[in-house]
Amino acid sequence: MTPCTDQVIGDILSSWRYDISGISPEMRTDFEQHFVECQHCRSRQRLHRTVDVTLIGLATLSTLAFLLAQQQDAQHRQRRDEDSESADVHGEVRKAEAFRESADAHWQKIGHRE
Ligand SMILES: [Zn+2]
Known about the structure:
- It contains three helices and no strands.
- By secondary structure, it is an all-alpha fold.
- It has one domain (7-113).
- The mean pLDDT is 88.
- Zinc ion (ZN) binds at residues 4-6, 10, 34, 38, 40-41.
- Residues 4-6, 10, 34, 38, 40-41 line the site of zinc ion (ZN).
């Protein structure tokens, strides 16, 4: 790799991660000129941009994966809630039937007595 043609400017650029979009246009001209002259910094800038884009892409992907996993988890939890609710209803129905049977038995006993 070719060394930087101006180490001072090269160091400044490196501390900015070769991103000069945040500085004022008058100042930017010098650094833009350096990018034209210096192959080292130009390739570093391209590398950093690629890394940035890759990181943004990965962050977006992991966010999507997280949201998807959360959504699936919520769906699973909802389904489990519905299952336990219907189990509760079955339990109530059985209790009511048992009560009616014992009530019938009482009535029969009373009927026998008469
Ligand atoms: Zn340079």
